[in-house]
Amino acid sequence: MNKYIPVIGLEVHIELSTVSKMFCSCSALHFAKEPNTQVCPTCLGLPGAMPYPNKIAIKDVLKFGLATNSKVNKFSKFDRKHYMYPDLPKSYQISQYDLPFCINGKISLKSGKTINLRRIHLEEDTAKLQHYEDETGQYSLIDFNRSGVALCEMVTEPDFENVDDVIEFLKEIQLIVRYLGISQADMEKGSMRLEANLSLRPEKDSILPDYKIELKNINSFRFLEKALNYEIQRQADLLNKGVKVAQETRGFDQLKNTTFSQRIKEEAQDYRYFPEPDIPPFRFEDKFIFVIKSEIGEMPQEKRVRFANDYKIPQNYIEVLLSDKKRSEYFDKLAELDKKYSIGLNTIANLMVNKNLDQEYPEPELFIKKLLEITKKDYSTTDENTNAVYEVLHEFPKAVSDYNSGKGAVIGFLVGMVQKKLGGKGNPKVITDMLILNLKSPK
Ligand code: ADP
Ligand code: MG
Ligand code: ZN
After folding, report:
1. How far away, in angstroms, is 50 Cα from ligand 3 center?
2. Ligand 1 binding pocket mutation candidate from 166, 212, 216 (most atoms within 8 A of CB)
3. Cα of 151 to ligand 2 centre, how many Å?
4. Which domains does the chain have, with CATH numbers?
5. pLDDT tens per residue across span 206-255
6. How many CA atoms lie within 13 A of 275 on its CB side?
7. Which ligand lies nearest the alpha carbon of 212?
8. Per-residue pLDDT tens digits for 342-383
């Protein structure tokens, strides 16, 4: 049996949450809308209809690129990618080929490993096929509401060697996109779509295998994990038997937890790419890029480091708080308020993470008020205080006379002695006031 190292590269599609579509002014909010109600000649691909690009979508992609340490191609263009399918009315998709908006990005994983992002480009989404079956047989209908919605594609180098890194990376990408506010990146709704390419490399080899399997149509991190694990085993079994793994696209069967062949993958040359003649190329000025960069704000990784350094709360709390941008900002507000109340950031984080107390109190001020109530000490009673103060004043006459001759600092010692008698349960302010009152008019 040979030992194999998985070689994995990802292609991630992110549907941008722009108001209008990529090349027309139809609404891009297609989810759960009446079919074919948000369409026009452009996104229906009617002859003669002209595309005009959505500036916000382009800015969003540049933002995403800059936030992932990519280089912006200052000269860029759209290209036509040709293939025939019922969800693609023009029989070509406007996409980007050799000059994508962003290239050469980098994302670091917790292990310190770096994943290289080959490219981030912009394209248009396809229509959606709905499949039906009734007594007349099977048939499909097409909903064009999604046709022409802005879609951003990110492609990584085949840098992953294990499934855990893939999942960590994808969750980080999802978080970055949500922090940027450019997409909901919701897999169930299809606004984040994953494809993984996988091959196995014999441990002793250092070159890329000469084949790869593309896993498509996977709509959750958990299914991707299962599909990859299944596929690693399947390929290892084939290779160990001396069988060459066929290059193909495979889907994941959620019921059987297995992958199955969908089609033999096409090559780039089959798409007959050429520059989109209806949209002039772009030249981005440095100032334009600079302005976009300045709009990015704090990214999850920066926040992770800041929370660890400034707040010193446990890593697992940090991850939970970070996973929701609003929640992390809420915690920032609490940390600011706590400078005054000193409840302690660990206590605060614990009550948010384990008790979801922030859900009940949308206002940070009210949250703190509630916490002060919860954490309020169970103080000793007035009778207990009076007895303890009386005893201390009689047991330490020297301290009393020192105080009366002007050594005010001795009050700290007396408070300490009273607390000792009360087992630390005295309210420091109440005890101090009681002592001062009795010292001024000693009994
Ligand atoms: P194609 O031209 O078939 O689209 P690319 O070289 O553009 O292939 O790569 C597509 C994706 O496949 C990328 O995410 C890349 O990282 C990944 N990839 C390339 N070669 C391999 C390989 N041998 N094993 C696994 N993934 C690979
Ligand atoms: Mg590809
Ligand atoms: Zn339209």
Report:
1. 10
2. 212
3. 15
4. 4-290 (no CATH), 298-374 (no CATH), 382-439 (1.10.10.410)
5. 899 999 999 998 989 999 999 999 999 999 999 999 999 988 999 999 88
6. 9
7. 1
8. 788 998 999 899 988 888 888 999 888 888 877 765 677 888
